[in-house]
C-alpha cells in the first residue's frame, strides 16, 4: 500500500503516508480501525459503507461488522506531527468528539424514564442526551432508534397541570430535535390538555422553553393531516399570542426568529382562524421583522403575509402599517422567485382593497418592478399576479409614466 500512494504536500511539507487515509489520500483527522485491522479516516469509511460496500477498501476482505474503533495512538501522532510543523503553517487537528454508543444511549434513556430514580439522575441523563443529539445527525438517528421519542413524550407530558417541571422542559429540548411521525403528532394534537400545556410554555420565563414549545407546536401542526385537529389547536388564542410575542420581543435570538416564523406560518394555513393572528398583532410584527430574516425565513414570512391579506382584517392591519407596501415593493426580485410571488400576491390583495395602497405602491416604484418581473424568468404565477396588478393600477400611474417607458413598450403586457 505505501508504494501506491504518491507524495502529498501540505503547506510545502510532505505528509507521511501512514497519516493519510487510503480512501481519500488526505491527512486523517479522525482515524478509526475496522475489523480487518486497517485504519481509515472516519468520514471516508462511513461514506464507503453508506454506498453499500461490504468489503475493506485496502484488503478487499469482507467486513464482519462495521464497528469503528478510534485509533487514539495514531491520532495523537498526527497531532504531534502537526504541532512539530506548525512553523510551516500546518494547523493541529482538533480532538474529534466520539459518536454516541448504543449501550450508553440505552442507559441514558433508561435513567431518564425511570420514575423511581432521583431527580438529579433523570435530569443529568436528559442533559447528556441533549448534548449528544446536538453533536451530530448520526447521534440523533441512534437515539431515535431506541424509541426515544416515545420516552421523551411521556416525560414532557407527565404533569400537564404545571409548567414548572424542569424534567419536562429538558425532555422538550431533546424532543424538538427529532421529526415526529404523523401518529405522534396526532397523539399530541388530539389531547387538549397537552395543547394547553404547550400554549402555557409559550409564556415561560425561559427563552429556550418558549422557543422549544413553539417548535413542537409547529411540528405537530405540520405533521397532522386532520384539518379538524389543526383547527382545535389553532382555536387556542394563547398560541397565536405566544408565537407572535416570540417574534416581537425575541428578535435578537436567531433561533427564536426562525421558529417563530415557521410556527406562525403553520398556524395561518388554516383560514378560519387567521383572524386570531391579526388580533394578536401578527401583521405589524411580520412587517417589523421582515428585514431581519434570511432567505428561507423571509419566504415563509411573505407567504404568511399573503395568507393574512386574504382576510379583510388582515388587509386592514397591513394597510395601516406605513412600511408594508414599500417593503413588499422592495422585495420583488430581491430575495427569490417564491418571495417575489408572495410579495406580488400580497400587493394584489392590498391594492384591490385600498386606493391608498395603490398610491403607496406607485410612489414606491412598483411600476418598474412589475415591468421587470413580467420580463424575468420568474414563475408563471408570479407573472400572472404582476400582470393583474399592473391592470389594477393602470388608473394610478402618473400620466407620463407609461408613455415614456421604453420598458413597457417591449414588455409582455398586452394593451388594456
TrEMBL record:
Keyword match Kinase? no
Enzyme category, top tier: transferase
Q: Which Pfam families match?
A: ARM_PUB, U-box
Give the reaction(s) catalysed. S-ubiquitinyl-[E2 ubiquitin-conjugating enzyme]-L-cysteine + [acceptor protein]-L-lysine = [E2 ubiquitin-conjugating enzyme]-L-cysteine + N(6)-ubiquitinyl-[acceptor protein]-L-lysine
Record domain U-box: where: 14-88
Q: Which Gene3D superfamilies match?
A: Leucine-rich Repeat Variant (1.25.10.10), Zinc/RING finger domain, C3HC4 (zinc finger) (3.30.40.10)
Instruction: Show the InterPro entries listed in the entry.
Output: ARM-like, ARM-type_fold, ARM_PUB, PUB22/23/24-like, RING-Ubox_PUB, Ubox_domain, Znf_RING/FYVE/PHD
What pathway does the UniProt record associate with this protein? Protein modification; protein ubiquitination
Keywords tagged on the record: Transferase, Ubl conjugation pathway
Q: Name one GO biological process term.
A: protein ubiquitination
Q: What is its EC number?
A: 2.3.2.27
GO molecular function annotations of the record: ubiquitin protein ligase activity
PANTHER family under this entry?
U-BOX DOMAIN-CONTAINING PROTEIN 26, WDSAM1 PROTEIN
Q: What exactly does this protein do?
A: Functions as an E3 ubiquitin ligase.
What is the name of the protein in this document?
U-box domain-containing protein
Amino acid at each position: 500500500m505505501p508504494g501506491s500512494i504518491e507524495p502529498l504536500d501540505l503547506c510545502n511539507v510532505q505528509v507521511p503516508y501512514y497519516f493519510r487515509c487510503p480512501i481519500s489520500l488526505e491527512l486523517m483527522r479522525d482515524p478509526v480501525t475496522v475489523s480487518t485491522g486497517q485504519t481509515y479516516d472516519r468520514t471516508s469509511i462511513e461514506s464507503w459503507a453508506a454506498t453499500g460496500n461490504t468489503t475493506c477498501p485496502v484488503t478487499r476482505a469482507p467486513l464482519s461488522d462495521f464497528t469503528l474503533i478510534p485509533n487514539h495512538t495514531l491520532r495523537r501522532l498526527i497531532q504531534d506531527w502537526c504541532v512539530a510543523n506548525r512553523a510551516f503553517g500546518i494547523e493541529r487537528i482538533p480532538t474529534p468528539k466520539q459518536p454516541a454508543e448504543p449501550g450508553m444511549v440505552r442507559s441514558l434513556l433508561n435513567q431518564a424514564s425511570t420514575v423511581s430514580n432521583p431527580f438529579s439522575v433523570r435530569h443529568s441523563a436528559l442533559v447528556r442526551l441533549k448534548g449528544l443529539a446536538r453533536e451530530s445527525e448520526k447521534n440523533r438517528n441512534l437515539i431515535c432508534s431506541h424509541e426515544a421519542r416515545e420516552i421523551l413524550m411521556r416525560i414532557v407530558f407527565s404533569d400537564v397541570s404545571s409548567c414548572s417541571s424542569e424534567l419536562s422542559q429538558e425532555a422538550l429540548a431533546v424532543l424538538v430535535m427529532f421529526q415526529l411521525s404523523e401518529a405522534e403528532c396526532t397523539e399530541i394534537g388530539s389531547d387538549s390538555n397537552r395543547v394547553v400545556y404547550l400554549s402555557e410554555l409559550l409564556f415561560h420565563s425561559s427563552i429556550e422553553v418558549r422557543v422549544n414549545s413553539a417548535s413542537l407546536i409547529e411540528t405537530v401542526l405540520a405533521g397532522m393531516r386532520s384539518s379538524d385537529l389543526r383547527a382545535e389547536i389553532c382555536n387556542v388564542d394563547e398560541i397565536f399570542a405566544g408565537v407572535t410575542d416570540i417574534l416581537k420581543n425575541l428578535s435578537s435570538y436567531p433561533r427564536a426568529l426562525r421558529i417563530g416564523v415557521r410556527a406562525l406560518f403553520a398556524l395561518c394555513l388554516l383560514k378560519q382562524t387567521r383572524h386570531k393572528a391579526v388580533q394578536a398583532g401578527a401583521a405589524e410584527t411580520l412587517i417589523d421583522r421582515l428585514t431581519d430574516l434570511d432567505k428561507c425565513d423571509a419566504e415563509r414570512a411573505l407567504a404568511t403575509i399573503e395568507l393574512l391579506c386574504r382576510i379583510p382584517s388582515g388587509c386592514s392591519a397591513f394597510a395601516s402599517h406605513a412600511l408594508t407596501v414599500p417593503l413588499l415593493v422592495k422585495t420583488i426580485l430581491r430575495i427569490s422567485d417564491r418571495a417575489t410571488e408572495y410579495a406580488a400576491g400580497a400587493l394584489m390583495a392590498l391594492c384591490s382593497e385600498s386606493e391608498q395602497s395603490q398610491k403607496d405602491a406607485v410612489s414606491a416604484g412598483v411600476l418598474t418592478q412589475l415591468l421587470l418581473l413580467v420580463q424575468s424568468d420568474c414563475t408563471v404565477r408570479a407573472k400572472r399576479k404582476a400582470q393583474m396588478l399592473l391592470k389594477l393600477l393602470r388608473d394610478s400611474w402618473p400620466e407620463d409614466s407609461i408613455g415614456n417607458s421604453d420598458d413597457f413598450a417591449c414588455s409582455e403586457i398586452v394593451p388594456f
